[in-house]
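User: What would this chain look like folded?
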Amino acid sequence: MCGIIGGNNFTDESAVTNGLQSMMHRGTDGNVIFSFENNMYISHNRLSIQDLSEEANQPMISEDGKFYLAFNGELWKPSFKKHWDRLFKKYNFKTKRSDSELLLYYLIDNLDNLQSALNDLDGMFCFALYDVQEDITYLGRDFIGRLPFYYNYENGLFSFSSEVKGLTIGLNKPYYKIDVKSKKYKSSEYKDKETIHPVLPGTLIKFSPSAVEKGSYTKDEIRWFDFKPEYDFVNKSYYPRKTEEFEHYDLKDMGIEYYTKGFRDRLEKAVDDETISDVPICTILSGGIDSTIITYLLSKKYPDMEAFVVNVNPTRKSKLKDDLYYARLAAKEFGIKLHEVNVDREDIDRALKESIWASETHKWTQVSPAVAQLFLSWEIRDKGFKVVFGGEGADEIFASYGDVKRFCWHEPIWWHQKRVNLLNGLHKSNLVRTNKSMMYGGKVELRTPFLNKEVIDFGLRIPTKYRDENKGNGSIMKYVLRKAFEGDISDELVWRPKKTFQVGCHTDYLKKEQDKIDNLFEKLFISRNDDAIYEYMSKQFGHIKTRIKIEKIGE
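Assistant: Here's the prediction, encoded as structure tokens.
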């Protein structure tokens, strides 16, 4: 996991340096800026996970010096199995096991057919590939958007960054504005077409010199993956939206055993594929069924696995069984070590500003889990881990949210459409918030096996009759997932009623603090007149700023 920033829309090197420093929490193992004669920059903060050698530092340069790659993410085991030997023989690799170098030559090898090539890549990734001879820049993001990635394009110039703050600071651009009518904050991706936008999941963006206006660049955007309403032979997926299509699709019932076994087999493979790492791994054990299952699978492969749970001490006694209760139960049952991160409301209040800065949002539904995740990641970092597994994605596959059950449960196609929409929207909600929070708190990489492409594809083919235990009339959601591990995990854990993360760890009280959150958010992202965060940033990473290596190319 890393941070990248670059483009040709920066005023000078200091602007790029400031943008790179604002994301120093995304990696301090190598910090490099490449500066080109045409005012193009490409830079990288490295968090070393695979191939810890200095030869694997980025940006990665091809042997002929034509291509420069800045890569944020990981490639999983299947990518190495499918592509390493062939590419290693064809190109002169300088590393022995770097997924960054594998991606570099994979992209070069498939430059004329990147659309299908990216669809065949197993991993979570955002990348910027710069062709210095042709002056062409390619931006890519994985099919579901596991990692944050943003760009700016205006007046024929462009820039990109792993986080919004890299551009708001580097370009001195606003991201959020106040919508006059609603008096709510709206991100510029919805308000202004000439500021900052997310690179959409499953999308390749190409910036190339304009043939009309010298010094200007054109933008070509190709969506190489989407959740489409009809069968797509390239993506090999079929997610119908029309009632007629769906009724035919939903009648293809193979029986409950087929779906429980099929989903479990694919999830087990996804967990194994994503354990590739040259540093120790651990897991989040919130107590919910999703993280419990991921922890169970990891504990079967790694008996010395360690897990982490966060708990905010409630101000009043509660008879409800919370995350801490179930995490303790699971850790004892699986025979693994559990680290309990106990904080109080005063701790939460002190970290609230940092959680807003980290998550880059003002919504309490995002800030309340983000602040708890900060404390989790600090503890994970202090215990010497860089990689942590989580259960994100299962709620979207099975549309297991309370509002979905209240409004969409009775109509099968509504439920199906809702889960497809939830997956399509992950890149701008829970997924990127968790990534930003974990990276900011402890420079910790989050892995989410539920968001493996094969897991999602199979999950979306489960008939709606199995959405709960009584063919649509019961009370326990994610029935197939729970049923798949029944007998291996105790009933108390498998059939635990669902609670949101903020309810389970007791940060849901922040719902009443929305005005306070809004005020802090306005100071940090709108008026930007609060220097506290910048002081913190300077205190934490100021010494590293002096280690940022700037290399001038072509001079």
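The chain has two domains: 2-225, 247-517. If you want, I can go into more detail on any region.
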